[in-house]
Amino acid sequence: MTKRTSGIHHITAIVGHPQENLDFYAGILGLRLVKQTVNFDDPGTYHLYFGNEGGKPGTIITFFPWANAYAGKIGDGQVGVTSYVIPEGALEFWEERLEKFEIPFKKTKRFGESYITFDDPHGLHLEFVERKEGENNTWTFGDVTSEVAIKGFGGATLLSAQPEKTADLLANVMGLEKVGQEEDLIRFRSAADIGNVVDLKTNSTERGQMGVGTVHHIAWRADDDKDQLEWQQYVGEQGYGVTPVKDRNYFNAIYFREHGEILFEIATDPPGFAHDESEATMGRELKLPVQYEQHREQLERTLIPIQVRELD
Questions:
Q1: What Rg, from alpha-carbon coordinates, does the chain have?
Q2: Residue pair 8/221 in contact by the 8 Å Cβ criterion
Q3: What is the pLDDT, as a whole number, of residue 227?
């Protein structure tokens, strides 16, 4: 049996104060808050999801915000940079917008593409790249219109403690195609039109430390429950310790840590984010999994109040 993931499903990171997180990703970057819920393993903490208007796989970044938590360190065993793809011709808009909100950025090039790189308020490394592929995001917020809005993930840069083994996994287990090498980066591509480009650093650095400002895991797409069970069997047959299926309400998930120490998840595309509220109202109210609904009053007292604010 051989398998090929169609690309990135979501990326999950640890950040600081939830309102700062919300102001940056919704207020400045113009992403839609598609779901506010809680960490299933720590219900006193939010789990916030941001993406395109429909919250489609390949557009979703999720956060565990811990106010006043210790800072992490980006390094081996993590996603080092999260890439966002924007429409062709939108780079100048985003340069001006970052300047407007006094967010420092740099311009770089790799694999023939121009990037602007910057950090979020809690230290996560981000970048924008223009590409034609991928449908435009119809969500508009503040001065961010659909003509310039973030489409979703351009991809990610992986930092591995054992780059050769991670490269082998990406090509021969996850089914990505190696499409190029430039200096200390190998580029892989999936078949999807978004969340489809992964750059792997070929040199190992220092081990990363989990904390605020670091990515917790990267999730890859499975078509449905049947496809995911095939992935579970296949990954296990390749010698990786893979978890049982976990119900995350908006998708099912399995996890394994690859040999370079990066935590991988494989998540199902369905059911998506509109099954416990309408697509029109997604993200407006706190949604709890069934097991925590009886504790709603207590949790709402515990969680820091947040609101989506237009900053323009």
A1: 18
A2: yes
A3: 98
* Residue with tokens 């207020």, as numbered in its chain: 27
Class of domain 8-302: alpha beta
3-state class (DSSP) for residue 240: coil
Asked if 61 and 151 touch (Cβ cutoff 8 Å), the reply is: no
- Give me the phi and psi of 71, to 5 degrees please: -75, 140
Euclidean distance between CA atoms 249 and 292, whole angstroms: 12
Tokens 């499975």 — which residue? 222
Could you please report the per-residue DSSP string of 124-191?
Answer: -EEEEEE-S-SPPP---BTTB-TTTS--EEEEEEEE-SSHHHHHHHHHHTS-PEEEEEETTEEEEE-S
Asked if 243 contacts 256 with a C-beta cutoff of 8 angstroms, the reply is yes
- Report residue 7 as tokens: 């690309």
pLDDT at position 1 is 76
* Cβ neighbours of residue 25 closer than 8 Å, sequence gap 6 or more: 31, 33, 50, 61, 63, 120
Domain segments of the chain as ranges:
8-302
Whether the bond into 87 is cis, omega within 30 of 0: no
Cβ–Cβ < 8 Å for 75, 214:
no
Tokens of 87: 């429409």
Both structure tokens of 12: 């999950």
Per-residue confidence (pLDDT) for residue 109, from 0 to 100: 97
Residue 284 region by backbone torsions, left for phi larger than 0, else alpha for psi between -120 and 50, else beta: alpha
Residues with Cβ within 8 Å of residue 237, at least 6 apart in sequence: 1
pLDDT at 274: 93
Predicted model pTM:
0.97
Q: Which residues of the chain have pLDDT under 70?
A: none
